[in-house]
Amino acid sequence: MTKENSTSIEPIVTLNNYAGTLLSTGEYEAALAIFRYALLKTEDILIQDKNEIGNDMPAVYEKATSYSKSTASKLPSLPLSRPSQTSVEHDENTDTEFIYRTPIHITKRNVDERDCNEPELHSILLFNVALSYHLWALEGDDSASSKKQQLLKKALKLYECSFSMQIDSWSMSITSLLALVNNCASIYKLLKNTKRAETFYNHMLSTLMAMIEIGEASEVEQLEGFLYNASRLILRDVVAPAA
Fold this sequence. Notes:
Layout: H1 3-24, H2 28-53, H3 59-72, H4 108-112, H5 118-137, H6 146-169, H7 174-190, H8 194-213, H9 223-242
């Protein structure tokens, strides 16, 4: 990323971080509006880069541009509301599962040190929009409602787009990887796709075990939440034979 492009993404980074603050306080409608606008501005930069680089453009840039066309410009404007106080959260005294609820924040240092390029910024915005839809869907109590199902499916599609882009660019932090896998598993479970949910949870469990084995578990933010969900797989496998 050139210095000129570094400067051009700074306003988008500011928008992302501000929208993330709004999302954290439950201002879903305002957060989504800003994330959507930031996605469209990122698309402009990606198209400009494509025109300048031409055939030498890395594949991840091509993928980011295609995702822009299929997601950013077509995300529907839905009537949003503030979350209730009963949103699903991990509670040690209940059987609810852990959901990663923290929007990705980009620091000035990330921009200054070129740690955040345009495709990565786009994947971050996709994650944050997905998280917005996901958290809003969790607000309602009726898991079978058509609106909730619609929101969950939109969130899942955007999570998977973000995951694919970050894997391609090898820029994903371990926490981001676990957050995407965990939240995708949670949505598949809510959509009654148990087999797919277990595939994601098993992937998360193996990743956590690897991090623990090499002594880098401390690098994972909100580790206890991920371990809580993963441990349910272990306990199920232990208890099942005895039952």
